[in-house]
Structures are given as C-alpha cells and as structure tokens.
Amino acid sequence: MLTTSPIERILRGLAITLVCLFFMFPIVWIFLMSFQTNETILRIPPSVVFAPTLDNYQALITGKLETAAGMLEINFMRNLGNSLFLSATSVAIGLLLGVPAAYAFARLKFKGSEDIAFTLLSFRFAPPLLVLLPLTIYFQQLGLANTYGGLIWVYQLIVLPLILWIVRGYFEDIPADIEYAYRIAGHDFWSTFRRIALPLAGPGIAAAGLLSFIFAWNNFVFALVLASADKQPVTVGALAFVTASGIQYGQVAAGIVLSIAPTFALALYAQRYLVEGLSLGAVKG
Amino acid sequence: MSDAMLRLVNVDKYYGPLDHGVAAVKNINLEVEKGEIIALLGSSGCGKTSTLRMVAGFEAVSRGKVFLSGREVQNLPPVKRNVAMAFEGYSLYPTVTVRDNIAFALKAARLPESEVTKRVAEVSEMLEITSILDRFPSSISGGQQQRASLARALIRDADLHLLDEPMGQLEPQLRTLLRGRIKYYIKERGLTAILVTHDQTEANALADRIAVMEGGVLQQYASPEEIKERPANLFTGTFVGEPPMNVFPASVTAAGGKLHIDLRGDTRGDLRAGLDLIYAESDFAQPVRERMLGKRDVVIGVRPYAVHRAAQGAAAQVVANQWLGDQSHIAASFAGKSIVLVEHDRAVLSEGETIAVEIRPNDLHVFDAETGMAMSHGQELA
Ligand SMILES: Nc1ncnc2c1ncn2[C@@H]1O[C@H](COP(=O)(O)OP(=O)(O)O)[C@@H](O)[C@H]1O
Ligand SMILES: [Mg+2]
Q1: CA separation for the pair B247, B282 (Å, rounded)
Q2: Arithmetic mean of pLDDT over chain B
Q3: Using CB atoms within 10 A as the burial measure, which of B1, B96, B124, B360 is most buried?
C-alpha cells in the first residue's frame, strides 16, 4: 500500500465527492421527485422539504393515472415486464449464439474471419434510425412487426456484437496450449470448449452478458417503432406520462426509478465482475 | 514397413504459405523405435518445438507424412493420436489443483479411483511434488509447475510421450537427480519418449539416440557416442561436446613420404602465419589419406581432450588457464587461431608461456570445407 499524505487524502476525498455529486444529483433529484405531487414539484422556488406521498407509485402499480382531465389507464407494469422479458431473452439468445461464435473467431483463423467479425461490430456504428425504415417495412411484410420474436431479433443487433467482441478477446487471452493439453489427453474440440474454455472465460462472459443486458434494457428507438403498447418496454412506455393535460412529473420520476432499479441493482451486484471482466478482456496478458 | 513407434517421412513445416512462409522444419526423416528415448537437440529456434507439435497434431504438417504405430496420422486430430505431451510453457489447467491436473487424463479414461491415486502418488513422489498436490497452479513456482506438467504427461499410457524442455526451469542439483529418475521411470514402463532440449548433458544422459537439429534441418541422428566420435558434419562436431571441438581450415599435401596438413591462419593475407602439421604418410590408412588429398580445402577438427602437451610438437602460446576443480581448460593461440586443451590435472602454466602441443592422427576429424560434411574420423572414413 502506498502511503499518502493527509492533504492528498483530503483533496482526493473532495474530488470523489464532487464527481459523485455531479453524477448522482439527477438520480437523487428524480428519487425525491417520485415521492411528490406535481404541485410540490413545480412550486417556485423549489424546495427539498415536502410531505412524501406514495401516490405516484400507487398509480403506476395499479395502472390508474389521475390527471386534471380525468382518469387515464396506463400499462406501466406491463411495460416493465416487457423490458425484463425482452432484455433477458435477447441476452440469453445473444449468449447462446455469441459465445460459440466468439470462440470460433478466437480459435479458428479462417479466411475472412476478421472481416466477418468486423462487419458484426460495425452494426454498432450505424445509427439505428438508418435501418429502421427498411426494417419496419420488412417486418410488416414478414408479420414480425409488433411481436416479441421480431423485437428480440432486432435486439440481437445490440447485444450480439457486444457479446462477440468482449468474449472473443477473453477467449484469445486463454493460452491455446491449455486447451491443447486437454485435447491431447483424449477430449474433442467441443468438450474442450465446454470444460476448459468456457470456465476460463466465465468472468468475461458474465461481464458481456450484464453489459448487453443494460444496453438492451436502455434501448428506445427500435421498440418505439416496432412495437405497439402491449409489447413496449419501459423506455417507450414512459411516453404515456406526457398527457394532453400536461406532463405528470411525479409519475415520470417514479417510472424512472422503477425502470432503472433492476439495471442499477444488477450493476451494483456485478460491479466486480464487470470491472474484472472488461479490463481483463481488453488488456492482453 | 518397419514397426517403428514414430516415423516422420520428408516432413516440412512452414508457418504461413507453403514454400514462402517461415520454414521451421525442412524435410525431416526420423524413426523412433518402441521403448526408445530420443532427444531432439538444437539451439533455440531450430524447429524442435515445431516438430513435436506436428507429431502431437497442434500444428498442421505442411508436407510429408507422420506415422504413429504404423498409422498415418498427419490428418488426424490430437485426440485420435494417443500421445502425451509436456508443454514448454507448462499449460496447466488454472482452475483445478495440481493433483487434478495430473489425474485429469486418467479420470477421463475411466481408470478406477484406486489406480489413479496410486499412479499420482508414484509420479509425484518421483518428481518431488507430493507436497504441492493440493495447491493451485498459480500459487506454485515455475519449477514446480514444470514438474506438475511433466507429471501430467508421464502418468499417461500413451504410445508416445513428447517432452518439450521438461527440465529447463529446475535448479542443477534437482535436474541431475530427476534425470536419472525420469529415465528409470520411462524405461521401467517401456514408454517411448521424445525429449526436446538444448542441453547436451541432458540429451547424453537420457537419450538412446540424439537427433541434432539446426536451422530446421536434421543434422545427425545417432547414439550419443556415435555423435561424439563420428560427427556427421562440421555443425554437429562443433555443437556437441564441451568445450567445443577446435577447428582449423587447412589444405593437405603429400611430399616425400610425409603428409603436410597446412593449417591456414585466421587472417587472409597471412600476417599471422599458419602452421604445418607434418605426419608420416603411414600414420593414416590409405583410404583416409586418399580422401584427404582428393580435396583442396578441408577443415581439421580436434577435440580439446585430444590435444596433448608434449616434449616436442607445434608451438602454442598460453592465453588463459582455468582450473575448474576437476579439469584444466587451457586456451592458447595456435596456427593464427586459438586452441583449447583439456587436462585432468591442475596445469601449472602462466599466460604467455610457450607450450608444445601434439595432435595424434587418430584424433583428427576431417571435414569438407565446402559442404561441411565429415570425410574421415581418425583412421576411418566417414
Ligand atoms: N506460430 C508460429 N508462427 C510463425 N513462426 C513460428 C511459429 N512458431 C515458431 N515459429 C518459428 O519457427 C522456427 C522454429 O521454432 P520452434 O520450433 O519453436 O523452435 P525451438 O523449439 O527449437 O526453439 C523459429 O524461427 C520460430 O520463430
Ligand atoms: Mg522450443
């Protein structure tokens, strides 16, 4: 452990506090907002003193939104469920397809493998809006528009390149001779993949899974265009709070809190894996 | 067809495109009999590991054929070849203990638990790693990892055991001790092994035959004695043997019943004069003499222990004299070059002193200066 002078420690603490404040403030503010009514939120000057209310959450959970113009049905819990289902299924399928593919790209240097891998990555470069129009038309013709299957398919554009590239780097870092040692001891290619390569790349796979889950969860534009209300994830569903009679800030805030909670919890829980997985995968040993 | 355990037939290895990539192994032919230990000896980068990896199936054979117990295997995957290998970089499985690393293959082959335990105990006792069996590879030293990796290979009942520099990381005492034990272990079980090494002492101690490699080419494949006494070419002659063979470019002429071996000095233009070794024609068997006279340019080689001090002989000036505890190494300038003598007693000589050296006709190795191929060893044709 390096010794640090007290001044250095104080300065460092100050810097960390500043950074935390900067990044956490919006989240804290939204958290506070979610326990207020629209009136207290919009009063001038703003204040942190208020009588907390659970109305916003209640409205979201029961699906009954009270506005000045009357009662409004919303589908927030359904959206949350959709988000969970779409992200989890997409990541599961992404891992199922991406991990073996990553292994193949890492171990079997075939003609054009580099080009294929790069093409897959380049899906991430193109702005989604660019492909949306043709995609919408095709999906309508194929009957895939507004289906979970169609959405999950499109979500592969998000998760697959991510998984492929992170996990591939991880496989490449496993010395090939460890696998050879296993194969020469009487095991085939497939069981070497399962028994040696997979466990050794485990942290990288976990990191890639988590990261792509978060990316899938946060996706907005694909779901906005390709899904109607009952298939929409929270990111799109939150639009319902922009009503004819104004924006329901309290409910928006509560909705945000509920929708970031799962990814937030996941990220906190898996922080260690994420950092380890991502840095180990990126830095060649 | 012979019943050799391993047969390499005209094997080439190119990294990259055939004929244009890096040529790591060039046209190797090699046979290993069942129960034999052979050493692949050569300096770093000469293609030893590449050869082993082709036999194991990790590298494709660019050209040629590989036979294992009579089966043509160069297109078979490693799992179908039934060979065991100790890797240069150890390559232990990091997620399991040393014990499981060693036992892995036996368990996969569904040997009974008691048999596995017994064999692990045997091999780890032999290699002095009993105390670390329950540790993980990352927590043991390089030398211990190397022995674990060797144990993992030796424990198996494979047709062929490939050992790539299996003792490179060990301290000298342990290496000497294990050498004997490993040889006994292999011989007792009738295993067949190829040992890769750049250490000639190890090759001499362990191997029944040594394959000397250089630049991807097999230079000589023979018993340790044969390689010492009858090196096939200048490379083997100077590579094997410690200290190395003294060599001098020379030309041979006959006149008046005498054979003149004219050692040319090192420098062209001849500031430092060469030296004329004169022998009686009858000192050499007729065929040897004829062959020597038939070549204009030859290279004369003589082992350091075959250079003797004598009352009369060619003059040499002592440059250095080192007592190693069991032998003296004397370096002297001779025929415009330097010559090394080995004596078994402590030599009392000081720098600059002139000594007379004698080189007996039976100790001369004669090589063709052009091709480097051996022409004769003592009284025998090569
Ligand atoms: N994977 C590889 N790609 C390209 N060249 C290689 C590769 N492996 C080895 N070589 C080259 O082949 C030659 C022989 O290497 P190697 O068989 O490892 O020698 P040794 O084991 O005798 O030290 C060297 O010149 C080395 O640089
Ligand atoms: Mg090597």
Answers
A1: 23
A2: 93
A3: B124
Question: pLDDT tens, B324-335?
Answer: 999 999 999 998
Q: Write out pLDDT tens, residues A40-96.
A: 888 888 777 788 888 888 888 887 777 666 677 778 888 889 999 999 999 999 999
Can the peptide bond before residue A199 be classed as cis, meaning omega within 30 degrees of 0? no
Residues of A in contact with B84 (CB under 8 A): 184-185
- The CATH topology of domain A76-278 is MetI-like fold (1.10.3720)
For residue A55, the CA-to-ligand 2 centroid distance in Å is 73
Domain B6-232 sits in CATH 2.130.10.10: no
Ligand 2 geometric centre to CA of B164 (Å): 7
Residues B191, B95: Cα–Cα separation, whole Å: 29
CATH of domain B246-381: 2.40.50.140
**pLDDT at residue B121 tops 90:** yes
Q: What are phi and psi of A112, to 5 degrees?
A: 85, 5
pLDDT of the residue at B219: 97
Residue spans per domain, chain A: 6-73, 76-278
By DSSP bridging, strand B37-41 and strand B209-214 are parallel
Amino acid at A14: L
Q: Which residues of B touch A177 (CB under 8 A)?
A: 58, 87, 89, 91
Top mean-pLDDT range of A36-50, A256-270, B165-179: B165-179
Q: Where in chain B is the domain with CATH 2.40.50.140?
A: 246-381
State ipTM. Answer: 0.81
